């Protein structure tokens, strides 16, 4: 009799349990609340803000936001993808292990025992799930809010002003959200790695966001030339290519490639480190 | 971890620093030369050319490249490009053409009698240089590169001097007469350009062109009048204005004329005019100087005449044609790469077309590229142009080897907008290419149906206000991507529009339209094709180009049918857009009649013929190799990282016997099998110097043989396989357990002991004795440096399944503060994956005794409540081995008493409990056995009763554990 009756490593820490453990956290609820409320706040801002009545001549994405629900959703995504969603993803992935360490509950989970690889795997899946939910819920809520507020019209493409039928754009919108998910993988993996190294949740989230900011700054250094293509943030806005009249996959494919590359290595390092780590928290 | 981070940071720092300070190849240094040449129709004019020779940076003999500057520039404009070419292994000669810079002589517009003769003598000069590779005596391997004015001299020289081996003329003219007097009414002219006799005077460009020649002189005077090195403050700006970035004004301070240095494109207009103003204030000019500047008087006179009338005289045409490559281009034997700007209303694409046709007619290889740039601005694509130039020169000037290495230059390349870069959101350009140049007629034509009634248009008196297509010289300032502002004046233009396109249409070349114009006398008209979207965008005039044409009506008025060649362009009309043909009476850039007039314009044929080039396709951009290679590599690396990072149990076991002397290990073993309680002094002293002297034992100890690590069993009789008498596995067995802190100090040092079933073991020791570290190792949280922990015979590793039989409470409770006590307990059990029925929640929660508080969030609990909840959690599932660290901390006396009973009862059922505590009295009452640790080592182990009896009675009382303990840890005083 090596293990207690009924114990099987494969059954430890079911996803359902981890989801419940994380869901009731205040920061989870606040983050989702914020993401779901943001579109409505924007709607109110557009409705009651001073009208920049320039007769629809301007073709900036912010000016087109009130054209249709789809335009509005694209706008909401564009304003949040670079920071809000990064913070959300960094929070869900960076907080997951470090907060357990912080609460001292990590050692009891490990002594339960949940094998370390399994603990990380389950936590990573749940964290990615929450991240995905965050990335999806914002544009979807924006689509709902935008459609209710501005109607279901065809999308008008920023800069060029072309119009694409709404029905054609809807699947593209799925691509946009999918790409946004993939491009956030780097943040997720980075935050997760930091999470396994520290027992300060703030440190994990801040570390990931900080490195993200450094990458964004490096991206502005033109002297780096094509090296910048390999920065994790470089292809962040490639999803806008999906909303042009002719879809261009080039940027998104490159972005996904870079993102997956970083994510795979970072996650592997996280697992490798955590396996050997002395848990002293 | 910190070391790794530091290492990574250091490596990154080193990398960046290296990259920053990596010695770029030393800047090639030029040698200033004054080269005397003789030219003129009778070879009697001696001119001193100011030149700079750059030897090839690699040394040895190399092909030579003559770099010619644009109009208004000087050799200084070419310095940067020259240095770059020299670094690429060419000898380079730059010079200021006659009449420019510090060269003497007058501007003769690249006349065969003047400038061409000069350049031939420059070729003679370079042939004598030892650094220059020769094809034959006096025949150097030579290429000529230049833009605008410099491009024309490249073409002219190649026509007149067969020693030239390759030329790369950029944004230059084929026929100067046509450039200044274009007429796009299609006639059968051999060159494909219009007839300048009836051409429309390109007033603004001509003015700028000639004005630049005039202003040169004023600068020459200005610099003479000023002390050296006191150039105006805006010197630095002129070079920047040239979008090619090839204008280099580094030395302008010493050379007043250098202020005119402009980009090769001649776009330095802004800085130019400012500089001119300064120049004029510096020194009054003589009337002749003011009139003609540094122009040859003959040219000056002709210009004055034609500019006044706006009509080309045959004299003027003869003179301009003499300076036009198209007339002599069929003599060119040097392979020619023509780089023409799409944004060029001075020398439009049709000029490159004419040159290409003329040169190709002699069988000479010609490649042509339409890039995003030209005299009207655009991007300029300096880097791409350099690449193309470099490839061309490598192919035709350098040896076979480098020709292979250089990328081939296609017959025809066009720069197209490639949308925005996803990363930087900046414009990117594509370069589709095809192997042969199809001409302005394209490989195919698409017919677009236009519609519109006959319309009356007026020529306003005085020709004002005029429509705006391109503003010469400032196009780069105003121009957006769409071609800048284009404004048509109401009433002056007839409009014919197509229905929305059903498919995108890529125009490449020159469209033609046939219109019928009715009026009297003569009409000067401008045709253009707009790209009109129905959206909110303004109509776009591709490249800002218009096609001027002049029609002469039959006497007494009537109508004339004209076929108009619309401006050559490369433009994509998106689906849904319309094509709009506009015929206007005015254009700001051209001279138009001052007489008011009215014309009727109608479509002769509703068809607009749009040329397309089917073969023009972007080089298969495909997906960069790294796009798929990188993630695959990363996944492989990740797999390797994971595979090699597996926790290996073998390695650790090996270290137990391998790394440390076995004898040393036994010193820590305290065998108390025969009731011995104290360690042996001799072996203790033989151990680590860090160990403290152990007090003299009260009774003799029976030593175990010093052969193998032997756990102190409590009260173990046999141990061997970790199996007790009943054949059941020993609940806990620790052998030679060692763990060092990061600083190297040993937290646990060779600890060995054993716990039997049914025991309540007290783990005693002062702070820092290593109790908690030992417990963490029992839980698999910390990996021992040496030795091992076995629970029920199973070795403890992180996540070992046997840990499921261990309940633990170590170093305080660990709960999720946002969940209630019950949720915490239930979710914890759920996390173990074991059946809820095995949990025995009620029993455990009874021990916790939290009552209703169980439903509150844990964050509201007191320390004692959390403590009890944590103990309850440890007891979930009634584990066979219960490890509790300071369980009575924070409990009140009744709870302590209750806890004591709970633990005793727990062990009575055949389970085992290990308790660490500071409260010796508590241990005395609760535990059946004790293990005493001090500084990571085992000091004593055995039943509490034995420990007490072995001690000397003190003060007449019975022995107390406290005394024994203090005795053992040597801290009696």
TrEMBL record, chain A:
A single GO molecular function term of this UniProt record: ABC-type transporter activity
Highest taxon above the source species: Bacteria
Keyword line: Membrane, Transmembrane, Transmembrane helix
Keyword Transmembrane helix: yes
Residues annotated as transmembrane: 29-49, 69-93, 124-152, 172-194, 201-221, 249-271
UniProt keyword Lipid metabolism, yes or no: no
Organism expressing this protein natively: Nonomuraea wenchangensis
Protein name (Swiss-Prot/TrEMBL): ABC-2 type transport system permease protein
Cellular component annotations (GO), alphabetically ordered: plasma membrane
TrEMBL record, chain B:
Membrane-spanning residues: 623-643
Region (Disordered): 220-284, 405-426, 648-727
Sample GO molecular function, one term: ATP binding
Sequence ranges assigned to domain ABC transporter in this UniProt record: 732-960
Signal peptide as annotated in the record: none
Ranges of biased composition (kind: Gly residues): 242-256, 265-278
InterPro entries registered for this protein in UniProt: AAA+_ATPase (IPR003593), AB_hydrolase_fold (IPR029058), ABC_transporter-like_ATP-bd (IPR003439), ABC_transporter-like_CS (IPR017871), Galactose-bd-like_sf (IPR008979), P-loop_NTPase (IPR027417), Xaa-Pro-like_dom (IPR000383), Xaa-Pro_dipept_C (IPR013736)
Biased composition range(s): Low complexity: 221-241, 648-673, 697-713
Record keywords, A-Z: ATP-binding, Hydrolase, Membrane, Nucleotide-binding, Transmembrane, Transmembrane helix, Transport
A Pfam family that the UniProt record links to this protein: PepX_C
Feature: compositional bias, Polar residues: 674-693
Family (UniProt): Belongs to the ABC transporter superfamily.
Protein name (Swiss-Prot/TrEMBL): ABC-2 type transport system ATP-binding protein
Gene source species: Nonomuraea wenchangensis
């Amino acid at each position: 009799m090596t293990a207690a009756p009924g114990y099987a490593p494969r059954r430890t820490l079911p996803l359902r349990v981890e989801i419940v453990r994380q869901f009731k956290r205040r920061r989870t609820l606040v983050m989702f609340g914020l993401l779901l409320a943001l579109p409505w706040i924007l709607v109110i801002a557009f409705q009651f803000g001073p009208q920049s009545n320039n007769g629809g001549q301007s073709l900036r994405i912010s000016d087109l936001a009130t054209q249709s629900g789809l335009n509005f959703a694209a706008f909401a995504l564009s304003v949040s993808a670079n920071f809000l969603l990064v913070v959300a993803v960094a929070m869900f992935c960076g907080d997951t292990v470090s907060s357990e360490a912080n609460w001292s509950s990590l050692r009891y989970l490990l002594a339960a025992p949940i094998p370390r690889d399994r603990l990380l795997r389950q936590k990573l899946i749940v964290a990615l799930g929450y991240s995905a939910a965050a990335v999806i819920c914002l544009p979807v809520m924006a689509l709902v809010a935008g459609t209710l507020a501005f109607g279901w019209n065809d999308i008008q493409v920023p800069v060029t002003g072309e119009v694409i039928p709404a029905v054609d754009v809807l699947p593209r919108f799925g691509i946009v959200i999918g790409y946004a998910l993939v491009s956030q993988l780097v943040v997720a993996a980075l935050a997760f790695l930091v999470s396994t190294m520290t027992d300060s949740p703030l440190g994990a989230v801040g570390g990931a966001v900080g490195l993200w900011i450094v990458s964004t700054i490096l991206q502005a250094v033109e002297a780096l030339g094509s090296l910048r293509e390999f920065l994790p943030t470089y292809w962040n806005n490639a999803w806008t290519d999906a909303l042009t009249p002719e879809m261009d996959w080039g940027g998104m494919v490159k972005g996904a490639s870079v993102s997956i590359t970083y994510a795979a290595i970072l996650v592997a390092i996280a697992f490798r480190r955590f396996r050997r780590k002395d848990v002293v928290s | 971890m910190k070391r790794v981070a530091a290492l990574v940071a250091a490596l990154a720092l080193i990398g960046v620093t290296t990259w920053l300070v990596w010695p770029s190849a030393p800047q090639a240094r030029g040698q200033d030369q004054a080269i005397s040449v003789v030219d003129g129709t009778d070879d009697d004019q001696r001119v001193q050319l100011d030149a700079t020779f750059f030897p090839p940076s690699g040394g040895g003999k190399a092909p030579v490249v003559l770099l010619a500057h644009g109009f208004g520039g000087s050799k200084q404009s070419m310095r940067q490009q020259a240095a770059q070419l020299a670094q690429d292994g060419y000898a380079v000669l730059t010079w200021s053409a006659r009449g420019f810079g510090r060269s003497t002589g007058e501007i003769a517009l690249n006349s065969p009698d003047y400038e061409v003769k000069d350049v031939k003598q420059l070729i003679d000069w370079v042939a004598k240089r030892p650094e220059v590779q020769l094809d034959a005596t006096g025949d150097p391997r030579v290429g000529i590169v230049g833009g605008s004015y410099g491009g024309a001299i490249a073409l002219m020289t190649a026509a007149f001097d067969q020693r030239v081996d390759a030329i790369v003329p950029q944004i230059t003219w084929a026929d100067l007469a046509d450039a200044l007097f274009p007429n796009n009414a299609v006639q059968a002219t051999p060159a494909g350009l219009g007839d300048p006799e009836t051409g429309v005077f390109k007033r603004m460009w001509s003015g700028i062109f000639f004005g630049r020649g005039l202003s040169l002189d004023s600068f020459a005077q200005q610099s003479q009048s000023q002390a050296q090195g006191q150039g105006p403050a805006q010197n630095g700006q002129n070079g920047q204005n040239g979008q090619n970035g090839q204008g280099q004004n580094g030395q302008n301070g010493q050379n007043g004329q250098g202020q005119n240095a402009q980009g090769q494109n001649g776009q330095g207009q802004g800085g130019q005019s400012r500089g001119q103003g300064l120049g004029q204030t510096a020194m009054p000019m003589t009337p002749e100087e003011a009139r003609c500047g540094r122009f040859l008087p003959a040219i000056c006179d002709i210009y004055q005449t034609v500019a006044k009338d706006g009509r080309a005289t045959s004299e003027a045409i003869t003179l301009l044609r003499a300076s036009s490559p198209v007339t002599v281009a069929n003599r060119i034997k040097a392979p020619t790469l023509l780089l023409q700007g799409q944004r060029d209303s001075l020398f439009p694409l049709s000029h490159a077309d004419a040159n290409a046709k003329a040169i190709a007619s002699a069988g000479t290889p010609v490649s042509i590229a339409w890039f995003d740039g030209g005299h009207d601005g655009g991007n300029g694509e300096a880097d791409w142009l350099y690449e193309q130039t470099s490839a061309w020169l490598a192919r035709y000037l350098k040896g076979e080897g480098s020709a292979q290495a250089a990328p081939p230059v296609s017959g025809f390349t066009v720069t197209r907008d490639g949308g925005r870069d996803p990363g930087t959101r900046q414009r990117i350009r594509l370069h589709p290419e095809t192997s042969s140049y199809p001409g302005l007629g394209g490989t195919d034509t698409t017919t677009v149906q236009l519609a519109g009634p006959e319309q009356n248009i007026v020529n306003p008196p005085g020709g004002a206000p005029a429509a705006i297509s391109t503003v010469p010289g400032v196009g780069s300032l105003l121009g957006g991507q769409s071609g800048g502002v284009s404004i048509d004046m109401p009433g002056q233009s007839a409009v014919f529009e197509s229905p929305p396109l059903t498919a995108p249409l890529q125009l490449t070349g020159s469209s033609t339209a046939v219109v019928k114009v009715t009026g009297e006398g003569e009409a000067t008209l401008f045709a253009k094709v707009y790209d009109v979207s129905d959206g909110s965008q303004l109509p776009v005039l591709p490249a800002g180009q218009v096609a001027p044409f002049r029609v002469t009506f039959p006497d007494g008025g009537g109508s004339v049918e004209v076929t108009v060649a619309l401006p050559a362009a490369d433009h994509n009309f998106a689906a849904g857009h319309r094509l709009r043909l506009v015929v206007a009476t005015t254009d700001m850039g051209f001279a138009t009649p001052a007489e008011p007039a009215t014309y009727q314009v109608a479509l002769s044929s509703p068809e607009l013929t749009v040329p397309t080039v089917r073969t023009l396709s972007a080089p298969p951009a495909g997906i960069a190799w790294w796009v798929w290679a990188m993630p695959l590599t990363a996944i492989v690396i990740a797999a390797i990282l994971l595979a090699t990072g597996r926790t290996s149990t073998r390695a650790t076991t090996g270290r137990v016997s391998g790394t440390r002397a076995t004898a040393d290990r036994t010193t820590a073993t305290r065998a108390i099998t025969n009731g011995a309680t104290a360690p042996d002094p001799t072996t203790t002293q033989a151990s680590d110097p860090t160990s403290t002297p152990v007090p003299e034992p009260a009774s003799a100890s029976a030593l175990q043989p010093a052969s193998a690590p032997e756990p102190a069993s409590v009260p173990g009789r046999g141990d061997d396989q970790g199996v007790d008498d009943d054949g059941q596995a020993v609940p806990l067995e620790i052998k030679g357990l060692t763990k060092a802190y990061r600083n190297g100090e040993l937290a646990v040092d060779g600890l060995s002991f054993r716990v039997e079933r049914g025991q309540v073991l007290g783990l005693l020791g002062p702070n820092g004795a290593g109790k908690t570290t030992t417990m963490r190792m029992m839980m698999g949280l910390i990996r021992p440096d040496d030795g091992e922990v076995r629970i029920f015979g199973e070795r403890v590793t992180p996540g070992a399944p046997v840990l499921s039989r261990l309940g633990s409470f170590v170093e305080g409770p660990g709960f999720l503060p946002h969940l209630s006590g019950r949720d915490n307990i239930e979710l914890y059990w759920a996390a173990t994956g074991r059946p809820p029925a095995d949990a025995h929640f009620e029993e455990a929660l009874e021990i916790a005794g939290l009552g209703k508080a169980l439903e509150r969030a844990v964050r509201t609990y007191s320390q004692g409540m959390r403590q009890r909840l944590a103990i309850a959690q440890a007891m979930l599932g009634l584990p066979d081995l219960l490890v509790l660290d300071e369980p009575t901390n924070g409990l009140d006396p009744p709870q302590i008493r209750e806890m004591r009973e709970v633990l005793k009862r727990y062990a009575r059922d055949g389970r085992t409990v290990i308790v660490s505590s500071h409260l010796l009295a508590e241990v005395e009452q609760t535990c059946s056995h004790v293990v005493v640790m001090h500084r990571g080592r085992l000091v004593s182990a055995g039943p509490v009763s034995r420990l007490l009896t072995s001690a000397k009675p003190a003060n007449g009382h019975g022995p107390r554990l406290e005394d024994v303990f203090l005795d053992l840890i040597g801290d009696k005083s």
